Amino acid sequence: xxxxxxxxxxxxxxxxxxxxxxxxxxxxxxxxxxxxxxxxxxxxxxxxxxxxxxxxxxxxxxxxxxxxxxxxxxxxxxxxxxxxxxxxxxxxxxxxxxxxxxxxxxxxxxxxxxxxxxxxxxxxxxxxxxxxxxxxxxxxxxxxxxxxxxxxxxxxxxxxxxxxxxxxxxxxxxxxxxxxxxxxxxxxxxxxxxxxxxxxxxxxxxxxxxxxxxxxxxxxxxxxxxxxxxxxxxxxxxxxxxxxxxxxxxxxxxxxxxxxxxxxxxxxxxxxxxxxxxxxxxxxxxxxxxxxxxxxxxxxxxxxxxxxxxxxxxxxxxxxxxxxxxxxxxxxxxxxxxxxxxxxxxxxxxxxxxxxxxxxxxxxxxxxxxxxxxxxxxxxxxxxxxxxxxxxxxxxxx
Amino acid sequence: xxxxxxxxxxxxxxxxxxxxxxxxxxxxxxxxxxxxxxxxxxxxxxxxxxxxxxxxxxxxxxxxxxxxxxxxxxxxxxxxxxxxxxxxxxxxxxxxxxxxxxxxxxxxxxxxxxxxxxxxxxxxxxxxxxxxxxxxxxxxxxxxxxxxxxxxxxxxxxxxxxxxxxxxxxxxxxxxxxxxxxxxxxxxxxxxxxxxxxxxxxxxxxxxxxxxxxxxxxxxxx
Lengths: 398, 222
Prior knowledge:
heterodimer; A: alpha+beta; 6-stranded mixed barrel; two-stranded antiparallel sheet; 54% helix; elongated; B: alpha/beta; Rossmann fold; 4-stranded antiparallel sheet
């Protein structure tokens, strides 16, 4: 007769007899696995979300910014002091193999329609920004190069702020808005880019022509340039050329030329660390669950001393008894792990309606592996206790 | 087949208090014997049974099984030898209630290290038939009578083809009639199949039914 069949039958008989106890014990592992898997799923979702966001901002893009924001993380006083101007813009435009150079001036503004007030970020920039960041309108038109030359007081706005100000995005087109005291005509409403969740709220931005923006940007400075190379193969060459163009005026540590992927990596690594910390905290509950298993296994062993004695008398070796109880604690733990994983899958399924969380194969393997591991680690002491019982005392036990 | 030479067994009760359960016992049980070990409670007969049953090892002295001294064997070796040499029958039957009758009978085989030259399941079914409890294979032990349970226990003791059946008060939990039937069954096994049977008892009536009685008093054979 099959060894494992009789051991499993015996285990399941006891689980069945002590249903409540079995479920409560597994619950500890269930909660642990659930929280670890869910947090990992959120972490993965967040990572994907961020990289999608960057993807949607266009690839082959370089950002030229003052200072060294990606090194050491601090915008320290002296190096951040520079601001780019028209001369830099013209210098950069002379660099070869570029599709376009987009000057950007941003400021925080309040946008008013009749009595309704919304805060927003104003982008004063050229119309190349729309091609550079893959921005398209849902309603109306984008502003043109001509609008820039003529310093037209026109604005292209994000769908979210349009809805807030006008009720619907559609009704915003052609309407006047007041931006920090100046009147603009809304010529277009952009497609949604998503955003929020702690990142920039791209759908609430207001874009106006660069030269029109001198209204707010009286000393005609730019906070950044977005540069697009003609193709990705030229990105490195362009980077070098841009650098030498800027080095004519600035020191090496006064500006950075950043690829989108570098920003992506920097942001992702911050979130990875955060997520790892959260998962580690959740893992504590797994340890607590394991202690629950250990506790109940001790109870099981003391309830079955007689059975252990009988098995020993019939020729079972210490190892047989040890593996029997280890198998039971692994089943108990794995049961909780599988349920936790299943529950996590259900929760993630519903959350996907709002957020791109997902469970990867690694999480599944890890959840099952860790819960079996817990069964072994926390089952070994009770199982050892069972195996080390003296056969004589065990069989006499009533 | 099993021989004890000058066997002593001491139990340490407390730090300095030692209880001598066996004080130099010499016993030989020969192949095919139908023997009883008789003595009052506290005489050391349980300790003697544990040593003969390979559940325990002596403090001093030799235990020779199949011409080999087993007093130096480790726990695993002793377990393996026990599974091959001894079949136990207990007063309390000691069947596992969560396993069926047939599973109980086959339980020793899952722990066996040896290769079987027969089909254990066939043998189990044969024994059930031979003992008049055919049809109870898939019953659970707590659903059958005491006499039937003891028959199952004897079948379990026989499944490994042991050299020795060691029965500890096998009739102690049974009424006289059923007890007599069990004794008759053990006697038949001894007569027909030449299986060595050792019965541990405190009842002279039971001991009288065996061919030889080993009387033990205060840790010594008298």
